[in-house]
Amino acid sequence: MAKVPQQLKDHATRIHDSRHSASVGVRRFLGWFGVQRRGYLVVKQIRSALRRVKLVTEPDFESAPSEGRLRLQPAPEPKLRAKKDAGKSIGETSSEAPQAEGQAELSDPTPRLGTLGPANRKPLSINRDAKVREAVTLMVQYDYSQLPVMQNSRDVDGLISWKSIGEASKVHNKECTFVRQCMDTDVEILRDDTPLWKAIRTIAEKDVVLVKNSAKEIIGLVSTYDIAVEYHSLSEPFLLLGEIENNLRQLIARRKYPLSVLEATKDPKDTERKVKNVSDLTFGEYIELLQKPENWQSIGYNLSRKTFIAEMIEVRKIRNEVMHFHPDPLTKVELDYLRRVANMMRSLKLWNAK
């Protein structure tokens, strides 16, 4: 049974007593459980703890942006349903078999625009009646390409950018003293719960979009540059893991182990899978194969088997987290670890080529 942090217990007591919700940052909420990332085991633990104190989070803690906030609130009462049986009263709670733990609490698996960091950083803005030189100064100072033109947190008049200034003054020969004279009024505003795949199409077409929350407040700005940075942060772990696994596979394949050795490495519970070559083994089975001293010795490197295997086991842990597509990026420590191991595997490949 999952342990319920004292902070969550205290909040649950206050919330149920007052019937009011409470707000908490995502990072702080995860800190109650002693974690920074939302791996699948962590998510299972947190869902169990929330269930025990009869609370839910809005938005769902699993997909909420790490820089965002959660609202803790009472879990809805179980739905009552009418029974077709004449002997049972209307509104009686269903006696059907209960759902598997957490089955009714599955989060929306669709990535949303609001999961991006820039979508949750309130953008610097400027008033329509400000002078253009003020906008230019801010863009130079913060290295921005554009600024939203806003009267308040909800009302957007347009965007002023290097492009809009250039088109107004150079192309259309407009006077460009005030922001209102050279801003672009064709501004795309998307909700933070817009599916990410749909938002990316719009951003590619418009170059930049503003993001609003359910209260219609502008809470972020996302550009094509932000998408490129996000793509790199998401793709690098996959690329590094692929490189490490491919090099490890080739390292084993070059030694031409007998088929009997490969078959003996396969998980005995997996009776359906046939092993005909190294490619039919899993990453974990590569590790299992090299853990045997006789197999390791045939690799031909004068390296510590214990240290090498420990590295691969750590890579497998990170690999399992990455392959579950969690909303949190790898930590710098984890990413640096993959980079270092990938570099080591490149070195081994070069040694073998000599």
Would you mind describing this structure in some detail?
With 354 residues, the protein is mainly alpha-helical. α6 links the parallel β6 and β7. α7 packs across α12, α9 runs antiparallel to α11 and α11 packs across α12. The radius of gyration is 28 Å and the shape is flat. The two termini are 55 Å apart. About 6% of the residues have low confidence.
List the helices and strands and how they pair.
Layout: H1 6-18, E1 22-25, H2 26-32, H3 40-53, E2 55-58, E3 69-74, H4 132-142, E4 146-150, E5 156-161, H5 162-171, E6 189-191, H6 196-206, E7 208-212, E8 218-223, H7 224-253, H8 259-265, H9 283-291, H10 293-297, H11 305-322, H12 332-353
Parallel strand pairs: 6-7
Antiparallel strand pairs: 1-3, 2-3, 4-5, 7-8
Share of helix, binned? 40-55%
Strands side by side in the biggest sheet: 1-3-2
Average of pLDDT? 86
Beta-strand residue percentage: 5-15%
Query: What is the terminal-to-terminal distance?
Result: 55 Å
Alpha-carbon Rg, integer = 28 Å
Which structural class do the helices and strands define? Answer: mainly alpha
List the total number of helices.
Answer: 12
Contiguous uncertain segments of 5+ residues: 82-104
Main sheet attributes: strand count, strand direction, barrel closure: 3 strands, antiparallel
Q: Sum up the overall morphology in one term.
A: flat
Number of strands: 8
Structural domain count:
3
Q: Strand-and-helix sequence, N→C?
A: HEHHEEHEEHEHEEHHHHHH
